[in-house]
Amino acid sequence: MERGHRVRRINISLGDELFWRLPATNYRGSLANWRGFLASYLANETVTDIVLFGDCRPYHRVAISLAAHRRIQVHVCEEGYIRPHWITVERGGVNGYSSLPRDPDTIRALAAELPEPIEEPFAGSFARRALWDVSYNVANMLGRPIYMGYRRHRPNHVLVEYAGWLKRLTKRKRTVAQADAETAGALAHAGGFYLVPLQLDSDYQIRVHSQYALLGEFLDEVFASFARNAPAGPELLVKVHPLDNGLINRPAQVRELAQKHGIGGRVRCIEGGHLPTLLEHSRGVVVVNSTVGLTAIEVGRPTIALGTAIYDVPGLAFQGSLDRFWTELAPPDRDLFWAFRKLVIHRTQVNGGFFCRTGVGLAVKNAAERLEAEKPYWHFAPADEAAEVPGADVFRRPLPAE
Hints:
The protein has 16 helices and eleven strands. It is of the alpha/beta class. It has two domains: 10-140 and 348-395, no CATH class; 174-339, Rossmann fold (3-Layer(aba) Sandwich), CATH 3.40.50. Strands 8-7-6-9-10 form a five-stranded parallel β-sheet, sandwiched between helices. A four-stranded mixed β-sheet has the order 3-4-5-11. Helix 12 links the parallel strand 9 (284-287) and strand 10. The longest helix is centred in the middle third of the chain and has 17 residues, at 126-142.
């Protein structure tokens, strides 16, 4: 209000209420009735912009679809493409739905017109992140009698996930020691190693923006290709995601798949490890579409993305097949990377964070300035010419299946 804008909020769960202290509309109906409710709401409130966290959640998919028909701008927030002092606030969509250019010449030309980004650092807090996550999910469970129609976007019940994390915590001392030993072995191995940092099965980056239903399919493909095509000397080092819920015994899965492809003695799996050190010493990095891939490119490591990734650009990520990657290992173009980074920050990133008060304060201030500076997609186009409006393709892309 102080900046001359009217802000409205729709809560769809008690967790939403807990983390929003200002007036809001509480939707307590079913997901099936959400479209009708939201269509009426958007019309009655004369909404011009919608701000969402993530663009693949069921409620958000409906909102994006309705916005496309009403020429309402959509701004999608997510954790940053650039870590750790940035969050994503991108118009239209993020990750696989991003409108960032993939042509190197276009990237260089656009970046040349931009100033160097200014970054204000701050210290994050994993403890606060965990506390807020638990508070949100406990509130949602307690609020089920009130929000009977609420549908979670994650595939597993939160109590099942928490049980998995608690089990991992009880083994933490042992897994850290194992990770340290395996890391030392990989670093000392004469043939070097390729790094395979894993993501999460529940992540929409896997569920929507890749061809894999589960990470096991990704590992199976990588191991098969490595067994057929990699030089005889190097090993594979698989790094489990630090937020993996442990519902799948990932080290056991890695051992089983490695044995299946006859490379059991050439594959290591760690639940821990210092990522910067691993990236620096790796021969190359294989990811689906993790932001680790962009970090690997930043430190000059040959990188291949097997899913849809914003950095899957000629000159940054390897453009050949996985079978060729093991031996060709083309390093990224450093100048192109810095041009790409500058463009990504200016177009999609906001200095700030989600999980500490300083970061949130920065994010709110900078996101407000970003939203005010955005020019409307539809301001100059009649309805039948919407397809010609820059960025309109984001709304025309097919939404992921339930």
